[in-house]
Write a structure and sequence with these properties.
The protein is of the alpha+beta class and 121 residues long. The chain contains one helix and eight strands, in the order αββββββββ.
Length: 121
């Protein structure tokens, strides 16, 4: 009998914590923030799906200032305004240019750019 009161108090506390946890997990007013791991990466030129006749392609874009940029594995760095440019050699037909940008703190963005090369005869 002397243990009844402490056990009842302990059970009441445990049940209260359990109920509180359950009610908090059902709270739909809590909005989780979206991931902030993705950064700005926009391609200025060429436009997606463009057909060109020159094997040398000039790529220009914008990302975070001083971000590292990789175009088909070729590394460069964006300037203080986030502008980058590079050239790529295309094969005849459809070409996919893979562009990745990332900051020193691990934020990143990536894009695939489709360009067609039609060589004039």
């Amino acid at each position: 009998m002397r243990y009844f009161l402490p056990i009842a108090i302990l059970l009441s506390i445990l049940l209260g914590l359990l109920f509180y946890s359950y009610s908090r997990s059902k709270d739909t007013s809590v909005v989780k923030p979206q991931s902030t791991d993705e950064i700005l990466l926009s391609i200025i030129e060429p436009v997606e799906g463009k057909t060109i006749s020159s094997q040398m392609l000039q790529i220009k874009g914008r990302t975070e200032p001083k971000a590292f940029v990789f175009i088909n594995g070729k590394e460069m760095r964006a300037d203080e305004q986030g502008i980058f440019s590079a050239s790529a050699i295309l094969d005849e037909g459809e070409n996919t240019i893979f562009i990745v940008s990332h900051t020193e703190d691990g934020q990143y963005a990536e894009k695939d750019l489709l360009v067609n090369l039609e060589v004039e005869n």
